[in-house]
Design brief:
By secondary structure, this protein is an alpha+beta fold. The protein has one domain. The chain contains five helices and six strands, in the order αβββαααβββα.
Length: 136
């Protein structure tokens, strides 16, 4: 995971102005700017099917392992806190949206509480609903 983040940061350094957006209509969109990474998930079931179809068998095992880990909100937030520290050190912010609504902000611009340092949950119900869809 850290290796992939480093590649993403390297790519972000190439962006001086503007942003890049990759979108699969009604499924998923990824926006990358100099300091922000925004993911908007519209259809989790279809996204999971696409990810499983295009990934290699070894990557598919890693994907399934990752998806199993995020089934629980507590485990999900634990993983997010590890990533948050890396993002803060690189002055980057990750924004997760579910059906167009911000549900989670992680990293430099997040202002979490005492227990969730560098993580801000903006919509708890939508986040839980999204995680429940990942389970099914």
């Amino acid at each position: 995971m850290l290796k992939e983040l480093n590649y993403l940061f390297l790519f972000q350094r190439l962006i001086k102005n503007g942003s890049l957006e990759i979108a699969l209509t009604n499924i998923f969109s990824l926006g990358i700017s100099r300091d922000y990474i925004t993911i908007n998930i519209e259809n989790i079931k279809t996204l999971k099917e696409i990810m499983e179809a295009v990934s290699s068998k070894s990557a598919n095992k890693k994907l399934k392992s990752f998806l199993e880990k995020i089934e629980d909100l507590k485990i999900f937030l634990s993983e997010a806190s590890k990533i948050a520290e890396i993002l803060v050190n690189n002055r980057k912010t990750f924004i997760l949206k579910y059906k167009g609504k911000e549900v989670l902000i992680v990293g430099y611009d997040a202002r979490g509480g005492i227990f969730l340092k560098n993580i801000k949950i903006t919509d708890k119900l939508a986040l839980i609903k999204m995680l429940n869809e990942f389970k099914n």
